[in-house]
Amino acid sequence: MVAVMSAPFPIGPAMTDGWPMTSIIAGASTAPMAHAIDLARLFGGQGDSWSDALVSETRRQLGGCVSAVETGLRLTLEQDARIATALGALPPTLVWPIVLSNPGMISPLLLTHMRMRAGLALLLRQVGHADLSEDMDDAGGAIHFSSDPDSDIRHAAIELAMAEGRWAMVGAEDQPIRPDVPAEQFFELIWMTAAALGAAVMRSGLVPSAVAMAAVQEAARAALARHDERQGALAVADRLVWRLGARADAPDLLGQALVARRHLLFAALAARHLRVETGRLAQALVAGPIGHVAAICHTLGGSAPDYRHLLLALRPVRPTLSDARILALAADYGAMDDAQADGIIAELRAPEELSAKMALLTPKAD
């Protein structure tokens, strides 16, 4: 047996059971405490604002992207016969189990993105598994972009429907999902996966450490050079809204997108109106403080009934939104003034790194 079989990389379902919170914090000692708590919710079953469905789907999205990146890196690394021999002695799916036993490898921004992606996937799945290449017609036949006479709009709409379909697919945690993420998150996925593969190859003793390190770096950089974030669902949604031009400003289009449960399109349309990045706005809807949802609705000109409808639409990913709480929040909605809403939207427009640091200094409320 090769030496790698005794390497300290727990592999198998047993390692995900009974994780004490202290071990997660210890493994993420350089991360903010709030991030360590989120990791404990994701992997330790201690969710409160995280529903069971959101925990499972976040793990699915993250694990699927990690597995897809691992497959791509392995294909490149196996072009070197020595590396191929070492990889052949390893399990076919290695990196996700390593991440599961070392959750501190997951950065706050990567976890935030995957939680947002998981939330949107769950919301998209609410429509049932219909053919997402066809626009939903729940809004009285108002959304017909996939058959638009403008070919650019039509193509963007079809691209978005395909991206939504990929996100809404179900599968096992380690079943590969196309890592159609922004460049920052792809950068993290690549280096996290490369680190796990490189460490395992070096521990095998079959390849000199310097050779393994050089090969892993070369494969990672090649993957980074090939990545095209314009094919991601967020970018495609933005492209469709940009192609629509002035049509995207139609006063009833936001409501139609929400009624049709096209939540990614809704986020892109709202982001255009508010001059916020679509990913930031989607994250605020799915997992941000509930006051941020109110500010978004207020700034978009939504009424109390509109706010109530938005909360109902988000309930599948926000388990604290009981009927009684939705009614209470809608009743208090009129208390928010323009200055309060503008302050929250200004925060969403700020760089994500700045907002993340400021959030550590501000009490979090759902």
Provide structural commentary:
There is one protein chain. The protein has helices at about 20-25, 35-45, 50-75, 80-90, 95-100, 110-125, 150-170, 185-205, 210-225, 235-245, 255-260, 265-275, 280-285, 290-300, 305-315, 325-330, 340-350, 350-360. It is mostly helical. The protein is globular and about 65 Å long. The N and C termini lie far apart (about 50 Å).
The separation of the N and C termini measures: 52 Å
- Give the strand tally: 0
What percent of residues adopt helix (DSSP H or I)? 55-70%
Sheet with most strands: none
Q: Enumerate how many helices there are, as a single number.
A: 18
Question: Per the principal axes of the C-alpha atoms, what is the gross shape?
Answer: globular
